[in-house]
Amino acid sequence: MAPSNDLKTILSKLQFPDDAQVMRQIVDQTLQVKMRMGRIKRKIVVMSGKGGVGKSMTTVNLALAFARRGQTVGVLDVDLNGPCVPKMLGMSGRRFEITPDGAAPPVGPLGILVASMDFFLRGHDPVRWKGSMELSPVWLGMLEMNVIREFLADIAWGELDLLLADLPPGAAADKPPAIANFLPELDGAVVVTTPSEVTTDVVRKSVLYARDVGIPVIGLIENMSGYHCPQCGHESDLFVGNVESVAADLDVPLLGKIPFDRELSQRCDGGRPMLESAQPIAKRFDDVAQRIVDCLNFRQIVADTL
Amino acid sequence: MKFVCLNCETFMLFQKVEKPGEGALGVEFLCPTCKARFSMVTNPGETQMVQALGVKIGGRTTAPEAFELTRDTLKDGAECPVPAFSAAAGRAPAEAPSSGDATGGSCPFSSMVASMGASQGAEGQERLAASGRESGPALRPASSDSSAGLEWSAEALDRLAKIPDFVRPTVRAEVEAYARKSGESFVTQAMIDHYKGTTAELAWTPEASKRLENIPFFIRPMAKKEIERMAREQGRAEVTADMMDHAKTAFAKFMGG
User: Is A207's pLDDT higher than 80?
Assistant: First the structure.
């Protein structure tokens, strides 16, 4: 029997069902993320367009600063291919516990909950995916987005005051919009920079990009801002930069400047984080945390002080 | 992707998924009328692409488990203890797959394209035709906010192009935000003019400036911007002490005070 109608006519008569249940599953996945994220009061991403500026170090120390304030904090290490948050918190080799309620994240110093790809890997093994993922950047990107979605959907964080997400370097690519889509109530992004024109040029782009995709920028943190001498405690410029003018140009608050500190660096490498505010560098992070809180509550402060 | 039996003018029914070889996938379909059957076969690369979507074709047959995609897709296996259990509490419920309904079978790609792509394009063209305000192609903004769906007239885009690169994305975002607030889905030259009128420099009285100084310095720019926005909304050309009182009340009200 020969077909009597063309395809357009045939399709106009038919209803399009989802009996492969793909859309249904995607909706379920989205609901699952919403359910998990709905139990978290504040969600902040730490990002920078530039690699090597200290995003993970900043994330870890901000998490510690918020934990010192008595908050329940979670850290999500979104850098799938170069996860280093567990090492900095002395949590290498730990594992998720898969439970009926989801994956229970390991508990680190000061009760910080941590989720990282590192918890799936053996020793120093890199992330390797099955099949042709390693051959196709398009497919790899799609897979990584779904892995990030699983990190948001499947981790049983419980009730949290704050979730800090450490984004991978080169974050002005595909991750921020995906994260923003996964986290519709994202409170904003903290952008890390260093005193270098090359870095600030890239950071400018990532701030504009973040705004483009609807991520509110809470403010800038300048890392490696000077050198803190371990002998005499004197602080001097390590590089030349002008983060104040960058912040003014971009119309974003400057949350703080973190000097290069040898002890902090060694502690991060050794997985011995600064737990108390005794050291001046830890106090700096406490101050930055306070400013983040103030920025998030700025309307209240304005109402109180105007 | 979806299959249509041209003879019977109906969608083929999804029947089952098979794994005929290493990395391959076979998805069987049946015409509900003439009972013709055939199988769509994917190669390992295509199979991986489907898996990367994180969905099961035909629906789930088992309750979801935490990190199943990540654990299944890591080449060397995931270093993660998985105790034996079947139900994943606290998750969206899974249902057994149906074998299709009377209208035919389906596949991930077709569902997604149908739901996300084709209709948007048609709607956009209809909006453009209906607007009839300015000539030129209507383009989608770079913003990923698909809910915005704003179109720009060619003339408006020309004007946007004259703005320096550095501030262009910010201006575009602000114009679009202004357009959305005004209930418009089409950005025209007139709208840009109107937006410009709302961004004109505002004067500050000395008293208002002094009160602004009370706000901590690092959030002062944010506060200033908000207060100026409120002043513009009220059609003011100057920020006065009276305006500051109004802003204080508005901020307190916003915070539930």
Answer: yes
Encode burial over B164-178: b for 16+ CB neighbours within 10 A, e otherwise.
eeeeebbbbbebbbb
Tokens standing for residue A193: 């920079």
Place of tokens 């508005």: B250
Q: Are residues B32 and B19 in the same domain?
A: yes
Whether B117 is in a domain gets the answer no
Q: Is the per-residue pLDDT at B166 higher than 90?
A: no
pLDDT (tens digit, 9 = 90+) per residue, B14-45?
888 888 877 778 888 899 999 999 888 887 77
Q: Are strands A235-236 and A73-77 parallel, antiparallel or unpaired?
A: unpaired
* Higher per-residue confidence, A85 vs B91: A85
**Interface probe, candidates A5, A21, A117, chain B, greatest B C-beta count within 10 A:** A21
Q: Do B90 and A156 touch (CB under 8 A)?
A: yes
- Domains of chain A, earliest start first: 40-298 (3.40.50.300)
- ipTM over 0.90? The verdict is no
For the segment A89-130, what is each residue's pLDDT rounded down to a tens digit?
Answer: 999 999 999 988 899 999 999 999 999 999 999 888 888 877
- A219 in contact with B, Cβ within 8 Å: yes
Kindly list the distances between the CA atom of residue B12 and the CA atoms of A7, A117, B2, B7, in Å, as whole numbers in the listed order.
Answer: 14, 41, 8, 11
Measure the N-to-C terminal CA separation of chain B; round to a whole number of Å: 54
Q: What is the mean pLDDT of chain A?
A: 86
- Residue B84 included in any domain: yes
What's the rounded Cα separation, in Å, for the pair A18 and B81? 35
Q: How far is CA A199 from CA A202, A205, A259, B164, in A?
A: 5, 10, 16, 21
Mutate to test the interface with A, among B17, B70, B140 (most CBs of A within 10 A): B70
As a whole-number percent, the residues of chain A with pLDDT over 70 amount to 91
Q: Are residues B190 and B218 in the same domain?
A: no
List the one residue out of A198, A108, A117, A196 whose CA is nearest residue A151: A117
Same domain, B183 and B209: no
B251/A303 CB distance under 8 A: yes
**Integer Cα distance of A181 and A30 in angstroms:** 10
Q: What is the CATH number of the domain that holds B162?
A: 1.10.8.550
Considering only residues A54 and A30, tell me which one the structure prediction assigns the higher pLDDT: A54
Instruction: Decide: helix, strand or coil at residue A263.
Output: helix
User: Structural domain of residue B140, as residue ranges?
Assistant: 128-198
pTM summary value: 0.67
Q: What percent of chain B has pLDDT over 70?
A: 66
Residue at B50 is within a domain: yes
